[in-house]
Specification:
Elements lengths: L1 E10 L2 E11 L4 E5 L6 H8 L7 E6 L2 E2 L4 H7 E4 L11 H11 L4 H14 L4 H4 L8 H13 L5 E5 L7 H16 L3 E5 L3 H7 L2 E6 L2 E6 L1 H8 L4 H8 L5 H13 L1
Parallel strand pairs: 3-8, 3-9, 6-7, 7-8
Antiparallel strand pairs: 1-2, 1-4, 4-5, 9-10
Length: 255
């Protein structure tokens, strides 16, 4: 469903992604992890057509993200990490706009929009408020609904749980599981590694733009001889010695 072949992305002299190749299958929940500045956002921007690859080929549902960008955009739902909404619109008006841009039939849009609003516990009163009045968590719900409303083949999510309360996050994780079981593909980035560990079929970890590990959560634990994905991630990306660093902090606080 998603094919990345030797992708490199350069900004001037800075190489953000270097020779990245990934194959993500239909029905798979796949996470791309990495420290800040590792190249995750650059990869996502290429996948969504917001940025062109410097070299390499990226295809979604068989369509090239550069040559067939409109066909790709028809087939994806996208939630960016720092999205801006049209805050002068109500939630209903915003979803109506998304439906028109997606060329959805009005009746289908209303049905799917209403079902998703109900699922994420946004009331009819909430939906009539301007988005400017929404909390961060409520805005995130609207973004997730907008990504799902047209039933895309591929969901691309950058920190999708940001701002969600525990109940909304639980609902969304269950939606992702059922969505993937229904034959859709989910590609996402997140720093919430305990969620990634429980939710994902496979995980790729990049550091300094390069792929350093790929596999199931269990395979990554076995590869690093660690007991949690957080510690495996720390080891694979050259993080600080956790035990020594924590002891140094405690020692410094005691002085």
């Amino acid at each position: 469903m998603i094919e990345i072949q030797h992708l490199s992305k350069r900004y001037g002299k800075t190489l953000a992604v270097e020779d990245l190749s990934l194959q993500i299958e239909t029905g798979e929940i796949f996470a791309l992890l990495g420290p800040n500045g590792a190249g995750k956002s650059s990869t996502v921007k290429v996948l969504t057509g917001l940025s062109k690859p410097t070299t390499g080929i990226v295809r979604i549902s068989g369509f090239d993200v550069t040559a067939d960008s409109l066909e790709v955009k028809k087939r994806i739902g996208y939630v960016p990490e720092n999205a801006l909404l049209y805050e002068s619109l109500t939630a209903d008006e915003y979803l109506d706009l998304i439906g028109e841009l997606r060329h959805m039939e009005p009746e289908k849009l209303r049905t799917q929009r209403d079902d998703l609003f109900a699922l994420f516990d946004l009331s009819k009163e909430d939906r009539k408020k301007l988005l400017a009045e929404f909390s961060k968590g409520m805005k995130q719900k609207v973004l997730l609904i907008a990504a799902l409303v047209h039933n895309p083949e591929v969901l691309i999510l950058d920190e999708p749980l940001s701002g969600l309360d525990a109940n909304a996050a639980l609902i969304f994780k269950e939606v992702l599981r059922k969505y993937a079981h229904g034959g859709k593909t989910i590609f996402f980035c997140s720093h919430v590694l305990d969620v990634v560990e429980r939710l994902c079929d496979r995980i790729a970890i990049i550091n300094h733009g390069q792929l350093v590990a790929i596999g199931t959560p269990q395979e990554l634990l076995e590869q690093t001889s660690e007991l949690s994905l957080e510690r495996a991630f720390n080891r694979l990306t050259g993080g600080a010695d956790i035990e020594r660093s924590s002891e140094d902090v405690i020692r410094a606080l005691g002085n």
